[in-house]
Structure formats: C-alpha cells, structure tokens
Amino acid sequence: MISPRALLFFLLLPLVFRPTTAVAGDDTSNFRESVFACEEAAAKLDACCPGFDPRAIRCHYVQRYSGCESAIDEGEHPAFDGAESRCIVAASCDELVARGICERAASAAPDRWYTWHAGYDKELGSSSFQPPVCP
Predict the structure, then answer these.
(1) 65/67 Cα distance (integer angstroms)
(2) How far apart are CA 30 and CA 61, in angstroms?
(3) CB 61 within 8 A of CB 80
C-alpha cells in the first residue's frame, strides 16, 4: 500500500514540472482550418500573381489572455479569413488579376487586437482590421 505522503507527492508532481511559459488562456496552436486555408490561398496567389511574395502574408493564429484584477487580451488571426481564403482558391488566375485581388492581397495584414482591462472598470485597447481582399 502506498503511503498518503507518497500519494500526495505523485499527485503534486505534474504541477511542479508543468511548463512555466504557459499562461492560462493561451492558444497558439496553428493546427487549425483557418491557418491551413490562409496558407492555401497564399500559395494560389503565389502561383497566379506576378511578383507576389507569399512570405509577406501572415497565416498565424495566436490568442492570449492573462490576469485577474487587471487583464490583457491580445491576439492575431490569419491575414485571410475562411471566406476570403475560399474565394481566392476558387477564383481563376485571370480573375485574381483582373479583379485586383492580387494587389489587395499583397498588402493584407492579420487581424490583431490588444485590450488591457484595469481593475475591470477600464478598458483600453486597440484593434486593426483590414478591408476585404476577395469580394
């Protein structure tokens, strides 16, 4: 039979050796449909648009939330959302060029936000959302 002290040790062991970089509320997994769809759209634009640099398109997903009485909520979603990615992939190369999608996509930026809550009674923050790339 295992002693209560040993049982307590083995129950608390995972808490002691947990990763210290994780913050409650972090979600940095890029294994999600929106990221893959954005990357597929960037590849299509690379194949169709003269001079297009797919490395300039950020197809990352990050969301962090931390704090108690004062809190920070920040994040970034892929430069092309799901609907835009599908629109780009479905269009022909000629359509992408003729409709100006190549030019708009070249300057696409990810949706980013940052909000700071001070004591739950103040909210200071900023957001940046871009106009649609693919109608």
Answers:
(1) 7
(2) 6
(3) no
Residue positions counted in the chain = 135
**CA 37 to mean position of chain CA atoms:** 12
Assign 50 a pLDDT band (cuts: 50, 70, 90).
Answer: very high
> Strands across the sheet with 70-77, in order?
62-67, 70-77, 111-118, 122-128
Among 71, 72, 75, CA closest to 61? 75
Tell me the two tokens of residue 50: 């003269």
Rounded (10°) angle between helices 82-90 and 33-48: 30
More confident: 1 or 95: 95
State the CB neighbour count (10 A cutoff) for residue 55. 7
Q: Quick check: 108 and 80 in contact, CB under 8 A? A: yes
